[in-house]
C-alpha cells in the first residue's frame, strides 16, 4: 500500500514549476498556469499531492519532538556530547526553551508550509476544476488538511495569523486563540458533507468524513483549554458519528503491536487518519522521513533487528512514565525494551565486547584497556554522570544503556536506509472511545448505551487479559491514555488538559503555566513583523 504515498508525491516537480512560472524567457505556450495545468483528473490529483507531501515533511520530527520531549514520555540527554545540538532537546525537558529553539522554529515553519501549500492547491483547483462532486471532495480534503495544520498551530502556539488566500503576503497579526478555534470548527463542519464517507484503500492517507469528526472531537475535548468554555456534549456527539459509521474497530490484543509494524497500512481498522511513509519516496525540499528506530534502538541491538545501519539510540523514557505500564497481562508492555537483552529467540544474550574503561569511563583500575564482555542491560534511571550542566550521561556503555526504549514503531529491517516504512497514525478509533469516556467523566451525557467505564473496557479488553474495570476515574483514564498512545505525539496535549504539564518529572521542575504554549519563533517574527510575542516570553 506504499504506492499511495508515491502517487501523492508525484507533483513535487509540478508544484515547483507552478510557483516559478514568471520567467519571461520561457515561451508563453510552455508556462504552467492554471489555464494549461491541471486539465484532467490525474493532474488535479497531482496538484493536491504537495499538501500531503508537506504534511509528512516534519510530522515525525518537530511534531514528535515538541509533543513528547516536553513531557515525561521521552527524554533525550547528551551522551558524551553526542546529541547536545545547541541545547534544543535539553530545553524541551527542562521547559526553559526560548524563541530561538530549533525544534519550536521547525514546528512553526512546517505547519505554516502545509497551510501555504494548501492555499496554493485550493486556489489552483478552484480555478481549474469543473464544478461537481469530484471538485467538492478534493477541495474539502485540502481544507481539512489546512484545518489540521491550524489545529496544530493553535494547540502549540495559541493565537496565530489566519491566512487562506494564496499569493497574499500581507503581514497579519495573530488572531485570538478562540477565533482560530472557531475557524477550525467552521472549516471542518463545512468540509464534512463533501468528504468521502468511505475508509480503507480508497481514502487512505487523505481525510475522510470521520477524520473531520475525529478532529472535531479533539477540538471539543480541549475546548476548555483553548477557549475557556467546555464543549463535552459536542465532543460526544462527533465521537458518536465515528462510532455509528461502523467503519472502524479496535484492533485485537493479538495484533495490537502489528498496527505499528513496517507493513501496516489501510488494512488497520483503527486508523482513521494516518501518515504514510515509504523510504523509496524522494521528497525534495521536505524531510518526509520517519526515524524512530534510529533514535530508540540501542546501538548494541543492530543485529537483533537486522538493521542496515547502527542506530544512535539517544532517546528513552523515564521511570515516572514507565510506571504506567504496571499490568503484567497487558500487551502494550511489549512495545518497550527493558532490562537484560536477548536476541529474538529469547535465549541468546545480546553481548558487547569492549574494554573496562569503555564499559565505565570512570573506571580507575590499571587494567582499563583490558577486554570486557557483558550482556546488555537497559536500566530505568537517567543519571547525569558526566555533566549536569550539559545534561550528559557520559560516553561509555553504562551511559548508552540508560533508559528504557520504546519500539512501538518496530524497526524496519527491509529499508536500506535509516528511514522506515511504518505508517504513523494521527487519529485512531481507540482515541474516539477514550475521548468519549473522558467527556462523560467531565460532565457530558451518556449516549448509545455507553458509560465511561464501558468505553474504557472496550479498549482494555483488547489490550489485557486482566479483569475488566468496574469503575473509572479521570486519573485512571489519564494513565490508560498514557499506555494506549505512548509515542504517538498526544501526550503533551493530554498532560495540559489533565493539569499535569506543570508537574515535576526527571530533572524538570519548572511550573510556569505560560509554557503550555510555545513562544512565537524569532524567524517567524522577522518574516512577519505584525506578530507579537506570546505572554511570558521576553524575546
TrEMBL record:
Protein family per UniProt: Belongs to the SusD family.
Pfam families reported for this sequence: SusD-like_3 (PF14322), SusD_RagB (PF07980)
Chief place of localization: membrane
InterPro entries: SusD-like_N (IPR033985), SusD_RagB_dom (IPR012944), TPR-like_helical_dom_sf (IPR011990)
Domain RagB/SusD residue range list: 229-537
Bilayer-crossing regions: none
Subcellular compartments: Cell outer membrane
Signal sequence segment: 1-25
Domain SusD-like N-terminal: 84-221
Protein known as: RagB/SusD family nutrient uptake outer membrane protein
Keyword list, A-Z: Cell outer membrane, Membrane, Signal
Gene3D superfamilies for the chain: 1.25.40.390
Highest taxon listed in the record's lineage: Bacteria
Amino acid at each position: 500500500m506504499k504506492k499511495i504515498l508515491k502517487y501523492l508525491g508525484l507533483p513535487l516537480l509540478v508544484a515547483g514549476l507552478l510557483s516559478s512560472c514568471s520567467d519571461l524567457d520561457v515561451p508563453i505556450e510552455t508556462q504552467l498556469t492554471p489555464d494549461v495545468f491541471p486539465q484532467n483528473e490525474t493532474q488535479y490529483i497531482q496538484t493536491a499531492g504537495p499538501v500531503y507531501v508537506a504534511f509528512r515533511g516534519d510530522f515525525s520530527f518537530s511534531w514528535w519532538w515538541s509533543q513528547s520531549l516536553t513531557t515525561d514520555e521521552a527524554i533525550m540527554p547528551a551522551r558524551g556530547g553526542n546529541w547536545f545540538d545547541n541545547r534544543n532537546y535539553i530545553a524541551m525537558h527542562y521547559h526553559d526553551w526560548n524563541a530561538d529553539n530549533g525544534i519550536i522554529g521547525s514546528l512553526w515553519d512546517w505547519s505554516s508550509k502545509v497551510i501555504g501549500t494548501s492555499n496554493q492547491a485550493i486556489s489552483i483547483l478552484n480555478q481549474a476544476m469543473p464544478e461537481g462532486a469530484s471538485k467538492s471532495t478534493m477541495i474539502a480534503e485540502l481544507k481539512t488538511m489546512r484545518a489540521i495544520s491550524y489545529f496544530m498551530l493553535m494547540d502549540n502556539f495559541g493565537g496565530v495569523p489566519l491566512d487562506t488566500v494564496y499569493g497574499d503576503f500581507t503581514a497579519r497579526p495573530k488572531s485570538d486563540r478562540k477565533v482560530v478555534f472557531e475557524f477550525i470548527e467552521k472549516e471542518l463542519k463545512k468540509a464534512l458533507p463533501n468528504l468521502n464517507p468511505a475508509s480503507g484503500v480508497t481514502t487512505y492517507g487523505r481525510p475522510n468524513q470521520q477524520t473531520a469528526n475525529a478532529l472535531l472531537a479533539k477540538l471539543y475535548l480541549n475546548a476548555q483549554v483553548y477557549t475557556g468554555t467546555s464543549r463535552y456534549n459536542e465532543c460526544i456527539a462527533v465521537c458518536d458519528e465515528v462510532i455509528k459509521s461502523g467503519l472502524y474497530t479496535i484492533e485485537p490484543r493479538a495484533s495490537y503491536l502489528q498496527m505499528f509494524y513496517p507493513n501496516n497500512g489501510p488494512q488497520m481498522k483503527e486508523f482513521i487518519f494516518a501518515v504514510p511513509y515509504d523510504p523509496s519516496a524522494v521528497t525534495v525540499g521536505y524531510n518526509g522521513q520517519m526515524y524512530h528506530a534510529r533514535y530508540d534502538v540501542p546501538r548494541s541491538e543492530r543485529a537483533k533487528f537486522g538493521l542496515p545501519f547502527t542506530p544512535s539510540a539517544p532517546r528513552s523514557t523515564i521511570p515516572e512514565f514507565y510506571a504506567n505500564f504496571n499490568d503484567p497481562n497487558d500487551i502494550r508492555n511489549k512495545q518497550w525494551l527493558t532490562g537484560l537483552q536477548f536476541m529474538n529467540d529469547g535465549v541468546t544474550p545480546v553481548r558487547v565486547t569492549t574494554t573496562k574503561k569503555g564499559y565505565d569511563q570512570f573506571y580507575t583500575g590499571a587494567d582499563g584497556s583490558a577486554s570486557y564482555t557483558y550482556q546488555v542491560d537497559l536500566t530505568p534511571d537517567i543519571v547525569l554522570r558526566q555533566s549536569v550542566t550539559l545534561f550528559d550521561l557520559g560516553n561509555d556503555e553504562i551511559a548508552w544503556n540508560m533508559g528504557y526504549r520504546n519500539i512501538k514503531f518496530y524497526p524496519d529491517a527491509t529499508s536500506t536506509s535509516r528511514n522506515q516504512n511504518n505508517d504513523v497514525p494521527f487519529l485512531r478509533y481507540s482515541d474516539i472511545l477514550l475521548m468519549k469516556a473522558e467527556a462523560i467523566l467531565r460532565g457530558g451525557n451518556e449516549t448509545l448505551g455507553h458509560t465511561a467505564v464501558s468505553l474504557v473496557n472496550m479498549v482494555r479488553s483488547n489490550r489485557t487479559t486482566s479483569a475488566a474495570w468496574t469503575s473509572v476515574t479521570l486519573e485512571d483514564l489519564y494513565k490508560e491514555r498514557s499506555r494506549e498512545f505512548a509515542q504517538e505525539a498526544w501526550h503533551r496535549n493530554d498532560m495540559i488538559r489533565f493539569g499535569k504539564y506543570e508537574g515535576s518529572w526527571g530533572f524538570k521542575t519548572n511550573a510556569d503555566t505560560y509554557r503550555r504554549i510555545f513562544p512565537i519563533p524569532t524567524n517567524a517574527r522577522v518574516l512577519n513583523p505584525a506578530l507579537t510575542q506570546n505572554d511570558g516570553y521576553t524575546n
